[in-house]
Amino acid sequence: MRAAVITFPGSNCDRDLVVAFEGAGFDVTRVWHKDTDLPAGIDIVGIPGGFSFGDYLRCGAIAANSPICQSVVAHANRGGYVIGICNGFQVLTETRLLPGALMRNAGLKFLCKPVALTVADTDSVFTQNYDLGSDVIIPIAHHDGNYTADADTLAQLRGEGRVAFRYAANPNGSADDIAGVLSANKRVLGMMPHPERAVDARHGGTDGARLFAGLAGMLATA
Amino acid sequence: MAKATVHVMLKQGVLDPQGEAVRHALGALGFAGVEGVRQGKVIELDLADGTTEADVQQMCEKLLANTVIESYRIEMA
Q1: Would you identify the CATH topology of the domain B2-76?
Q2: Closest chain A residue to B66, measured at CA
């Protein structure tokens, strides 16, 4: 399986994401934001956390309009897999590949701590390795993770099983406790918590590794 | 040279955590006469000759505002 991890100026979780993909058996190619094309034969694109373009204007807004993101949108529209984590989730909402938006945390503070997430849907390559309704511990590290969408969109996400993860104890004011959402075809996942920071016992937990292992298992047999 | 001023605000109905914090801070300072605060941003554009308000509107839709949560208003001068 082949993964591409994109680096923007200000990305700071790109190496961690590469390590997580490689740990699950992926061949990983790193891609620079000014590149216009993804490498051929990529199964999944990872958009990492960080502060792309210094969070100027809005988190993820400038990255979403970078040359490589047009290729990421095309990849997704062809049915390709994409995972956006933290700032990567913000980028995916700004590209409109995922609905809604991430606003400033309700408590206004930057939050950096492990949190419990409830697995809300297991019918995706990202979540099928988890038990529905179980709690997993994944770290968060964000200032703008307060997910918002209009009532119709929230009802649609809920009805279509597109909420992948919910916070067990909502830290940031997110609507419907949403921590991660899936696209309509469930091949694009955006989540604020960092599964790539929970893939090694020395991280303090390995619940994130199951996401990457599940992904590898599904894409290897696809 | 023409100028455009773009005002970007959170849409009505979208809770503004920063505006709420400012409202609380004003109350703590003894300014009792404020019932609501909403915080937005102002973006000034120096326009090249021939750039129209319609162009600026496209800029707003594509980049300057996130119309999922924000509204915008353009002033041309």
Answers
A1: Mth169; Chain: A , (3.30.1280)
A2: A94
